[in-house]
Specification:
By secondary structure, the protein is mainly alpha-helical. About 65% of the residues lie in helices and about 5% in strands. The chain contains 21 helices and seven strands. The strands form two sheets. A five-stranded mixed sheet has the order 4-3-5-7-6, with helices on one face. The protein has a two-stranded antiparallel ribbon with strand order 1-2. A hairpin with a 2-residue loop joins strand 1 and strand 2. The N and C termini lie far apart (about 70 Å). The mean pLDDT is about 90.
Length: about 500
Amino acid sequence: MPLSSSRVAPWALALLTLLLAFAGSDAMSLKGCDEAFYAQIAKEMVQTGDWITPHYAGGPNFEKPPLLFWLVAASFSLFGVGDFQARLPVLLAGMLVVLASAGIAWLVRRDVRTALVAGAVTATTGLFLQVWHQVMLDVPALVPLAGMVLGLLGQTRDRRFGWLVGPSLGALILAKGALAGLIAFACLPYLLWRRRWPDRSLLLGLVVGLLPAIAWYGAMHGMHGADFWRIHLGQQVLERAQSGLFAKDPLGPAFYLVHMLGTFLPWSLVIPAAVLAGFRRARAGDGAAFLATSFLTVFLVVISLMQTKFEHYALPLLLPVALLVADWVKEPPRAGDRWIGGSYLGLSLLVVAAVVAIPLMRLPLEVPQPAWTLVAVGALGLSFAWGGWACWRRMDRARVAFRLAAGVGLSFVAAAQLLHLWDAVPAVRQAAAQVPAAAEAHLVLPGGLGRDFCTYSALRFRLPGALDVVEPAQVPHGPRGWYVGKAEHLAARPGDRLVAEVGGWRLVERP
C-alpha cells in the first residue's frame, strides 16, 4: 500500500514534525538580536505585571505588537525564565502551522496524500525551519494567517467557516501589526474573484474578532499618544517601506526571488512548476488555486518593492506554496520532471563536491565543529539526490515529495542534535549563570552600547540584576562587582578573581 494512503504516514509526519521542533533543544542559547531582546520584554512583563505596554530595560518599547510577548510571558509564568522557555511558544506555534497546512489541503481537496504533502512541505522548508527556532514574530503570525485561509476557503463548503476570518485577522494584527494589512490586501483578489458580498458570518466574525486588537491599540493611544504611533507605525513600517534600514541591496526587487532559491529548499526547484500548474487550475475556476496564486503574486510584488528586505519577510508565502506543491504532486509525471530531477541531481553533485573539496584543499570553514558540519551538509546533498533521482525517472510525484521531506527532515534533525544549531552564544549563557542573582554586573564593551547592542541584549536577558556598559579602559579603575567581556577586552587587576573563562568570554569578580 502506498505510504501516502497507509495508516503509518500521518504518524510519520507527526513524529518528524516533533523531532524537527525539539531536536537540539538541550542547547538553546538565544541570539541577542532579536531573540534575547524580545525575551527580555516578555520577562519584564512578568516582573512588572504590566501586560499592556511592552517595556525594555525599564522603559516603554513601542516597536512591535504584543502577541509574541504575551505568549513568551505566559511561558515564563508557567515554567520559569529561561532560553528554552522563551522558544517554547514559537515551537508549539510552528507545530500548529504544520497541522494547519495539512488541514487546509484536506479541507479543499479531501485527499490524504495532498494533506500529508502540504504538511511535509511546511515542516521541511529551510526558511521555516530557521525561523521556527527563533523567538521572533513570524511563526506565531502564521497561525492566524492559516486561520484566515481556512476561513476563506472553508466558506465554499460551510458558511460558518467565515467566523474564523475575523478573529484570525485580529490575532494577526496583534502578531505583526500593520503587516496584517498587507496580508489582508493579498487576500482581496480572491474576495473580488468570488463576485459575492461577504456573508453575515464573515462580517460578524470581523466585528467580534477585531475587538481585542482595537482595544490594545486604543489603550496604547490613550496612554502614550503620538509617541506610540511615531515609532510603531512611522519608524517600523513607513520608514522601512520607503527608505529602508540598510544600504540598498544590489539585487533590488529580485531579492526575494533569488533568495527563495536557497531559503525555500528543498522545494524551491519544484515551486516554479507548481505555480504554473496552479495558474492553470485557477484559470479553470479552482478557488483554492486562485487564492494561493493571487496571494503569492500580490504579497511577493509588494515586499519586493519595499526598501527594507529580510529573508523572513517572505515567510507568509509558505502556506500558498505548500498548497501549490501538494496539488502539483497529485498530477501525473510529465516530461518536464526530468529537468527538475536533473536540477536536484546537479545540486547534489555540487554539494557533495564541495564537502569533499573543503578538507582536501584545506579550505577554512569558520563554523563550530567543521567535521560534523560537512557531514550534515553532505547528508543534505544525498537527500537532494534521493528525491532528484525519483523525479528524473518520472516516478510518482508523491514518492518524490516524501523522499525529499524524509531525507531533508531527518538530515536536519541529526544536524540540530549534533551541531546544536540553535545555540547562538553558549559562552555568554555559561558565564552569566555564575553571576549571583542580586549582584551588579558590568559588560566590558569597546565602543559602548551603540556599537554592539546584540551582546548587551544577550547578557541583559540572562542577568537578574543590574547591568551597565563600560569601556575596557575603565575596568582598572572600576567599582566592585562582576565584570564580563571578551578575554581580549577584560584584563583582571591584582586582587580580582577570575571566575570563568569559556569560549573567549571571561568573568571576573572584584571584591
